[in-house]
Amino acid sequence: MTEHTRRGVLRGAAAIAAAGGLAGTGVAASARPASAVPQETASRHYPFLEGAFKPVTEELTAFDLPVTGRIPRELNGRYLRNGPNVLGLEDPRAHHWMLGDGMVHGVRLRDGRAEWYRNRWVRSSQVTKKLGEPYPGPVPPDDFPCNTHVIPYRGRILALQESGPLPYELDHELNTVGTYDFRGTLEGAFTAHTKFDAQAGELHAITYYPTWDHIRHLVVGPTGRISRTTRIPVTEGPMMHDFALTEKHVVVFDMPVTFDPAAAERGDLVPYIWNTEHPFRVGVMPRSGGTVRWFTVDPVFYSHTLNAYDDGDSVVIDLTTYPAPFYTAGRGSDGPTAVGTAKLERWTVDLRHGRVRQRTIDDRPQEFPRVNEALVSRRHRYGYSAASAEMTLAYLTPDGNPPDRAFSNALIKHDLLRGTSQVHRLPRGAAAGEAVFVPCDPTDPKAAEDDGYAIAYVHNPDRGAADLVILAAQDFTGEPVARIHLPGRVPLGFHGSWIPDA
Description:
By secondary structure, the chain is mainly beta. Helices cover 7% and strands 39% of the residues. Strand 28 and strand 29 form a beta hairpin.
């Protein structure tokens, strides 16, 4: 293989199961007859295609959604969440959850009403082919139906993916507009996890690509163009899914999940391995660019950043981690495999004495930590995370064999100043997605940090469909302020955003 592209290197179900086609928008391809599927495949357990992960097969539109409770009238905008929803899959052996076709689920709120729900696939060239639709214009390099995040950016809505593909822009009704390259200034890969510093008006990204000998720190300035690119040398092509940003620093995590050319040559779905020879390093660089200081830490799998801030001569990072080793490609399953559960930690990088202090904040299984977005890169007190029993079990299911353990569903609010937490418990079968904080009044400078709501998609096992659950952040364990009843399921997925009306 002389050139590695996303089609050739990160070949997932979207690329290698393209033979399945669809008759039209919103109608799933008929499944291959059971007789055509190998017997061992038909009887095998694929946790990321079942239960709360099971892909939906239709694009729905529903208006005037039923509500239990009352939607706060100050919530005017859209809640959107992205995630993998593989389309036209014929053989589950050709599936890896992280590479499923991106689908965005959205609810529009206005004046105390839930005006609509929509779910739409991101119309990349692969998805339009499966749907029997034309793709407008030339196909961009490394094209992919971005499945990991969806963010607002200066009046636009962008679906994001790391390591190669351009972001896709969506309109306010979730139709795909086309790829977006920040006014012609994005060259190469982008990221799934941007950090927007509201006070500086800057959007930051750490980007990587399997065959680069570096990673890139990109800064998108107030003009909407990439104003600065800093290249940071690395070896062995490490995966860098997320990073941290403070008022003064950029923090990167060079962990031992690295690109494996041999796996790419074999056509492995995700050619990344746990590399015991690759040390785990935390790098701290001035936001303006310059020398990176590296600090070696014991190996773990760094998953997501809650937030980070400067504290004198130290940088404080709250993040979720998994114990080592972590198998991104999976171990005989159709998604990543962990050897233990995720936990919330605080890492303090002492720049004066050259060391990193690691402390567990909460060892309960949890993921997808979030903060009040107005405080990204600044000191925060509160954080929010999700505990999903089915996601935890799926990560602990090598070779299709789930562990004999029980986990719970909950949304968690952390008070990081007092070292306490509040748990909003959910019933069995109520798989919870990421909880996003929405302020009551983002224009009020005197508002308390937690004066607002935590909102998340939660499966309703009694209806067999999802609810958008709205919790009062200052009454977190109380009854939801509102449950908006959606007409269909929202499979467990990745990340989302509240997009307020302008």
